């Protein structure tokens, strides 16, 4: 049974008479990785700032493990770890001193725990160097280190893989998944890298103009495509013109893109079509269903982004 | 409570890990040493009195009287009246020693510490700089976002910052004492553990313990330090900008007296902060504005202090931390 770790209830935020967040509600369960996406200016950072207590709510409430950040701030904050936008640390101190500094703001974080976290984010070699000498990726790692020092139940990451190299991205992705699965941490990731979000998240919320316009599970996506719905199918064949003709005869709408054919078919229709083509001596290299990418869907849902 | 000490430790670490802080300590040391060199080379101070001190004092008085006469002549020619001069005061003191048959103290470590009390204004300057940056720098670095998301109230964070600034002033003060004392002891000698000297007070010349005098002299100077630092701290918390705070803080520290002088004809001038920061006026009896008392000044200082602190607190607590 996974319990709700973070709960937003009808959260509103008005800054200088402009309503920026217009009644936002969503829950993130323990052990869940939640992707928080939306076009520029949608209100992601504003929402995150409210969750971590940098901004006060105009209305509604936010609860962390059932504790309101408004009436029980310190209890709620104990269970939150976060990077808000860029991880800005003290440039004139070493990575180690930075971590000591933030560890001092909690009860009972041992030096061993700090060493463990340093190892986890792979900064052992440079931890005694001044942060101003760090590359962006090293800073990002140190940012993650300070966010998880106190073993929070809710981890909030604004663009966590920004500035990391491919190996680093994979490491951090694996690490975030581990945190969620093994330690039951609820992770909220805001990102613009939609493919990244898709790889890492269990559930996605799309926000636009301060409102949640869509929310769904990443894994459910395939199940929701039931047997009857049409899917885009890619056909890679030798005799493209010939094949196109055959399909047109069968009254199947076909799109030609480059040297490949795309048709809209239900799952059951696929074997029959393949058989027809084979019978006509068409050499088939690939038959694949193409997923509608999150990006397509995102753009469809959010439309062109008009910043209000 | 241990939580507060950990926060305080953090703030002090951030102050003392930075090079600018150590440059300040370097400047202070250089100035103390330069002062010693100046004293030795210009031979301003009669440092040694032998067993024959009575004769030496008389000789010194004759020299001083000569110089005084010269100065008087100079002032008559230029039309400026210097009033009671340093020379006359020194002559009076020497006479006091002679009349009471007290052997004057050889100049040494304690008196050197006392003479360096003026450097408290330099420490004020440093403390204003530190106090102006301690909140606003967190905004400039962006680290405020990592600071205010912890299970610690903003009030506690602000308090730890303010106390850290005062501790910085205290440490710097102790540093000044130690440097002055040690360098004084090495160069001029050590006067003993509880030496006394003759000083000019409101009630006339008095023979007092030097240690007490050191504490009062520094104490009087510290009033201005605390008030101006608190003021700069408030300004930087409200505007989140250290330049404005440093500028205003230093300007008012230097120009505060002038402000009072400009408005001294008005009755309300006594409510100006700077009319009250110099508590020495009640000891010397040279009160700036009629009707002011020590009690009045202390009340005014407390009111200003509380207002500064409350304003800092309100702005620090209520504000959203939005993007730059
Ligand atoms: N301090 C502020 N004062 C006034 N308006 C603000 C303030 N901060 C943000 N906004 C407005 O709030 C809206 C949401 O901003 P926010 O930074 O939350 O967007 P975002 O979703 O994080 O965008 P991005 O993807 O660009 O990071 C924007 O329209 C912005 O102009
Ligand atoms: Mg943002």
UniProtKB/TrEMBL annotation, chain A:
Keyword annotations of the record: ATP-binding, Nucleotide-binding, Transport
Entry-linked Gene3D superfamilies: P-loop containing nucleotide triphosphate hydrolases
Pfam families tied to this protein: ABC_tran
Source species, domain of life: Bacteria
InterPro entries (alphabetical): AAA+_ATPase, ABC_transporter-like_ATP-bd, ABC_transporter-like_CS, P-loop_NTPase
Domain ABC transporter: 6-234
Molecular function in Gene Ontology: ATP binding; ATP hydrolysis activity
PROSITE patterns xrefs: ABC_TRANSPORTER_1 (PS00211), ABC_TRANSPORTER_2 (PS50893)
Keyword Membrane: no
The family this protein is said to belong to: Belongs to the ABC transporter superfamily.
Name this polypeptide is given: ABC transporter ATP-binding protein
Organism in which the protein naturally occurs: Filobacillus milosensis
From TrEMBL, chain B:
Residues that span the membrane, as ranges: 21-40, 119-141, 162-190, 218-239, 246-264, 294-316
Organism the protein comes from: Filobacillus milosensis
Key words of the record: Coiled coil, Membrane, Transmembrane, Transmembrane helix
Any GO CC annotation of this UniProt entry: plasma membrane
Coiled coil (residue ranges): 50-77
UniProt key word DNA repair: no
Pfam families in alphabetical order: ABC2_membrane_2 (PF12679)
Name recorded for this polypeptide: ABC transporter permease
Gene Ontology MF term list: ABC-type transporter activity
Keyword Transmembrane helix annotated: yes
